[in-house]
């Protein structure tokens, strides 16, 4: 039996490709439904294609679990591994940043990033980091409304552990929104925060994250703080 499986996935844009890349890799793996069982250890190569990008981004994986289901189907769990060739991924990132710089709408180009974050406050909702740049970050709130303490001007801190060390990004909330997204029937609360002046080590770690070189261990997670809690934890 073939122990090498190659799957091709197409995306409309480099942004959507990187968004799915960070979401999937951040989870550490994927569960697929198949018509046949696969031996444990079967190697996977996911080819991620996007319009305007000549080479696909490849994500490597290995089958670590196979679960029989009804109607002769199987749930196959694939754990992702590291790819040594970054050529295609770097080309996609370069294309995203170049397009945003040409638009001139933002001071810093932003990276699509799907990263769940939590707050230490009891009963607080889950937050989802949607994009990040050298200047700030955008988040959605997985709840019907924004928490009351998330207001414009509120001190903000985002923390995560990267392979290169802890990253602490401090700043303040600069906008909030509860407007429905395009083609959405319900509003998704969200907000944006700008970063303050970062020390050199933190800036270097942020740049490594923006290049997808220094990533959190899977499953990706982060912590957010607001108000005095953020101020007391700021580096």
UniProtKB/TrEMBL annotation:
Gene Ontology molecular-function annotations: cyclic-di-GMP binding
Matching InterPro entries: PilZ_domain
Taxonomy, superkingdom: Bacteria
Name under which the protein is recorded: Pilus assembly protein PilZ
Residue ranges annotated for the PilZ domain, each copy included: 4-85, 106-211
Gene3D superfamilies associated with the record: predicted glycosyltransferase like domains
Organism the protein comes from: Myxococcus llanfairpwllgwyngyllgogerychwyrndrobwllllantysiliogogogochensis
